[in-house]
Amino acid sequence: MRTERPDHLRNDTTGNDTTGDRSARRAVTVFPILVLAAGALGLLLPGSLTGWSESVPYLLGVVMFCMGITMTPEDFRGVVKRPWAVALGLVAHYVIMPGLGWAVAHLLDLPPQLAAGVILVGCAPSGTASNVVTYLARGDVALSVSVATVSTLVAPLVTPPLTLLLAGEYLPVDAGSMVADILKTVLAPVLAGLAVRLLAGRYVERALPALPWLSALTISVIVAVVVAGSADAIKSAAGLVFVAVVLHNGLGLALGYGAGRLGRLGEPASRAMAFEVGMQNSGLAASLATAHFSPLAALPAAVFSVWHNVSGAVTAAWLSRRGR
Question: Any stretches that span the bilayer, and where are they (predicted)?
C-alpha cells in the first residue's frame, strides 16, 4: 500500500494532528482490516477464487504502478543528499531480514515450503506502507522514502540471488526466472507510473487520494487468492506460520532501529530504519512464492501482509508517545 506523500508528510515530525496525519492513520488502520477480511474470504470460500492464481503477478503490477505514480524527483534527490544513511538502510534491509528469515526457519524447523516462504519474505524489498508508519512514529520520512525507493529498484538484482543462497537448501530456486518476474511485475510498473507522474502530473494529482485505497484493495485480493490456494493446509500450519512471522517482523523492527543507532543517524532516522528493515513488500513475496514454489509457500507472505501493518501501527504509536 503506497500512500500519497505531500511535502508536509515527507518532512513533518512534529506529531501535529494534521489532515495528512488523520488520513495516514485511517489508511494504516483500515488496511489490515481489509487484508484480514480478504484472508477470511479465501479461507472460507476457496472455490470462489479457483483459477485466480495466474492473476496475482498482474495484480501486483497494479500496486507497483500506483507506487510509481506517487514518486517524485525529490525522492531521488534525497538519495544523493544522504548517500551514507540510504546505503546503511539498504544494506541493513537486505542483510537483517534475509538472515532473520533463514534463522527463524531453522529455529522453528519449518517444513521446506514454509521455510522457503519465510526466507522469500525476508529477501523482498521494503514494505509499501513503511513511509506512512514512519510518519506516524515521528520518524525521518525523507530517509524512509529514499530507502524504500532504492530497495525496490534494486530488487531484481538482489532478491533472486539472496533467495537462491538462503532458500536453495529447501527448494529448487530458478533465480534467472525470478529476475525476469521482478522486472515485469515490479520495476516496469514502477517506472511506468513514474513516467506518467512526470508527463501528466497535473492530472495525476487529482487521482492521488484514491491510490492508497486502490493499492489496499488490490493487495487484499492477492491475499485472498493466496489463502484460497492453500486453504486446506492453513488449519494445520497457521499457528506455526504466525509465530514465524511475529518473530521475523519483531526482530527486524528492533534490529533495524539498532542499526540506525549504531550508525549514529539520530533518533528520527533510527525510527525510519526500524520500519524500512522490519516491513517487507509481502505482496511481491506472495506473488513470487505462488509462481516459483507453491501456494503453501506464499502463506507466510499472506500472514505478514496483515501482521506487519498491525505491529507497525502499534510500534509507531508507542514511539510517537515516547517522543512527546
Answer: 28-49, 55-72, 84-108, 114-134, 141-158, 178-199, 211-231, 237-260
pLDDT digits (tens, 9 = 90+) for 271-288: 999 999 999 998 889 889
Residue 213, amino acid: W
- Per-residue pLDDT tens for 184-231? 888 898 889 888 888 887 777 777 777 777 877 888 888 888 878 777
| CATH architecture of the domain with range 7-323 | Up-down Bundle (1.20)
Q: Please report the sign of the dihedral spanned by the C-alpha atoms of residue 281, residue 278, residue 231, residue 28.
A: negative
**H helices of 154-187, where?**
155-167, 175-182
> Does residue 15 have a pLDDT over 60?
no
- Residue 212, C-alpha cell as written in the block: 492508497
Contacts of 137 (CB under 8 A, 6+ apart): 271, 274, 275, 315, 316, 317, 319, 320, 323
Please enumerate in sequence order all residues whose Cβ is within 8 A of that of 171, keeping only pairs 6 or more positions apart, or say none.
112, 113, 116, 293, 297
Question: For the packed helices 299-323 and 267-278, what is the interaxial angle rounded to 10 degrees?
Answer: 170
Q: What angle do CA 120, 121, 123 make, to 5 degrees?
A: 60
Q: Which ranges constitute the DSSP H helices of 124-209?
A: 130-136, 141-153, 155-167, 175-182, 188-199, 201-207
193: three-class secondary structure by DSSP: helix
Q: Which residues contact 167 (CB under 8 A, 6 or more apart)?
A: 102, 115, 116, 119, 120, 123, 173
C-alpha closest to that of 23 among 33, 8, 36:
8
Q: Read off the DSSP letter of residue 14.
A: S
